[in-house]
Amino acid sequence: MEGNVSPREAEKLIAEGAHVLDVRTAEEFAQLGHVPSARLLPIHLVAAAPAIVPEDGRPIVVCCEHGIRSRQAAAFLVRAGVPGVVNMAGGMSAWEGPREYGEGRIDGPCSWLLANADLLPRIGRALDVACGRGRHALLLAAAGIGVHALDRDAGRIGSLAAIADRLKLPVVAEVVDVEDGTADLGREAYDLVLVVHYLHRPLFPALVRALAPGGLLIYETFTTAQAQRGKPSNPAFLLEPGELPRLVAALQVLRQREGEFEGRMVAGIVARKAAG
After folding, report:
1. Residue closest to 152 by CA, chosen among 124, 182, 126
2. 64 has catalytic annotation
3. Is the pLDDT of residue 1 over 60?
4. Fewer CB atoms inside 10 A, N or C side of the chain?
5. Is residue 101 part of a domain?
6. Which of 63, 64, 110, 131 is catalytic?
7. Residue 244 has what DSSP assignment?
């Protein structure tokens, strides 16, 4: 299933269980209304979409306001090998189905990464540790940064490698278990090291060693306060209050945050390695 569908056809697909990916801005999504249950991923972040859309086999209806941006996004997903993608021609301006208003959380890259995009290197190499399906690896690679993406899930790494190959993006995806004590992340090899929603405390010295002089570490994961809200709840995977700056004491902290963000209790930090 690929190509264009009318808003009425899209409404039928959605009623039958199709997913909706809305690629408008957050302001349009909130103020002009959106399809109930739609996922928000603005078009400028669409490179991450292949690693975000559900993999349950149901159709994916891509929409925007007039059907132009969504056509581009849908074509991108098709090139990435995502099945069942259709574009809603005419967009939300022609939608007559149910509509909700109000803010929506961007369903894509970590907000901490986006908030610090001004600090990201324009060229160079990045290491994405515990990359999962590769939402950040794809986004960074689309911006021109060469990415080495690591995860111990062979299925996810295989899928990411295939997507990057179809899209001709500079991603090297590798199956690595960074907790087995044998992983070597390299020495002064990366201009950016990124870790999101993952914690293995013994790994921090290796993360610091992997940074090139002047390199940037962007890190965010859950704190112990998250356990009161559900998963994760294992203390081994949760930061103590104020712990993250101590774990990166060898680096210069540029920015940090701790508390509730997008409904999660997290701590984040941006830190730089000395230039030499």
Report:
1. 182
2. yes
3. no
4. C
5. no
6. 64
7. H
> Is the residue at 241 inside a domain?
yes
- Give Cβ neighbours of residue 91 (< 8 Å, ≥ 6 apart): 7, 63, 64, 65, 66, 67, 68, 70
pLDDT-derived band at 180, boundaries 50, 70, 90: confident
For 97-145, how does the pLDDT look when each residue is reduced to its tens digit (9 = 90+)? 999 999 888 988 999 999 999 999 999 999 999 999 999 999 999 999 9
Report whether 113 contacts 45 (CB < 8 A).
no
Q: What percent of the chain has pLDDT over 70?
A: 99
Which structural domain range is residue 68 located in?
A: 4-94
Edge-to-edge strand list for the sheet holding 60-63? 4-5, 85-88, 60-63, 19-22, 39-40
Token pair 């992340």: residue: 185
Give the other-Cβ count within 10 Å of 248's Cβ. 20
What is 135-188 written as a DSSP string? HHHHHHHHTT-EEEEEES-HHHHHHHHHHHHHHT--EEEEE--TTSS-----SS
Count how many domains the chain has: 2
- Report field, pTM of the whole predicted structure over 0.90: yes
Lookup: tokens for 99: 């509509």
Q: Name, in order, each residue with C-beta under 8 angstroms of 144's C-beta and a sequence gap of 6 or more.
A: 122, 123, 170
* Contact criterion met (CB below 8 Å) for 29 and 22: yes
